[in-house]
């Protein structure tokens, strides 16, 4: 008994002290040759859903603005949101820890790609602990949920995005492929995350799915099908679910397969599945195509509606939407109410008061928000 007391009272605190302080190392030592100048970040080794990586230690009080996170306010994790950085690893970490509350951004995890000799792909760095709210999805919406930062985990994949002029149409851009080691690490930790929190397949989505007017992210080359097939993560169709007959046999489609290419019917299915527009239906169609029917085929990331687009939208609705289909009016974003705009849309840092009348606020209208860049 006396021995047990000794271990608990004396050795345990010492052990905790050692693991949190002594095992903390400068980030320059964890990733040699990657950070210069030294960004003055301490990290500790961490087991991240089975992948050994590093976790950034909290910054001290005199640099508290480098901690880009706040409370989830008791809300439950329901979503996993995928991103690409459009910056290299070094720059991403600098941005996620800059000592500034001007457009602060972050994500729970950053996964590396092989971009320089001394940095392997598939390294996982935790920037924000899962129990805290990271700032990666801005004023977003999916289904009946808004402000998804509260209820999501965000993973940033280092990838430079695409080559070329941003004003080029999607199909004219050249996207960079994802590093296979990066996707492997992403698949492993995502599989752990969806199991731990019971995240529904249709709640594993991309940044552009929840903010379709913002930017392409994680783009048409993000391997959604591979994550589904190899890691059981997210929504997709199995190889034996690729025909109308197979879907009818296996599920209970809420509507007959639309025989014509019809934009309104396509949008009704997409809105029923979860997408919300901020007044631009075309961007919803593009986000859907990049995630599903034109995934891995940037050349089809245009606004033309093809039979495979109708099929994917119809089949996804049949497979994943369990509630009775509602005729969601395209173009609507759920409104939230609160006594002030800040209550209604806590991510919003600056409000256009005219849009805030009657305490009803459309979150997508927020102009300056915690996090939109990533
Ligand atoms: C915060 O304090 C530490 C330790 O005293 C010091 O090294 C660091 O430069 C300070 N940071 C700022 C932004 O003043
Ligand atoms: C990372 O990108 C920044 C510009 O965003 C560049 O200045 C820097 O040299 C790059 N670092 C590496 C290691 O590629
Ligand atoms: C910190 O990063 C954000 C997001 O990129 C940027 O808007 C802001 O200007 C940066 N602040 C500083 C002081 O570099
Ligand atoms: C959204 O809310 C409506 C109305 O309450 C409900 O019928 C529908 O099932 C909800 N959708 C989801 C995905 O929870
Ligand atoms: C991008 O393309 C647009 C339209 O073609 C053009 O007006 C603009 O000058 C281009 N920008 C750059 C940086 O090339
Ligand atoms: C984009 O690609 C399409 C199809 O190849 C082509 O017809 C169109 O002219 C291109 N647009 C631009 C702005 O390059
Ligand atoms: Zn993003």
UniProtKB/TrEMBL annotation:
One of its GO terms (molecular function) is N-acetylmuramoyl-L-alanine amidase activity. Its EC number is 3.5.1.28. It is an enzyme of class 3 (hydrolase). Residues 1-24 form the signal peptide. CDD domains: PGRP. Keywords: Cell wall biogenesis/degradation, Hydrolase, Signal. GO terms for cellular component: outer membrane. This is N-acetylmuramoyl-L-alanine amidase. The lineage of its organism: Eukaryota, Metazoa, Ecdysozoa, Nematoda, Chromadorea.
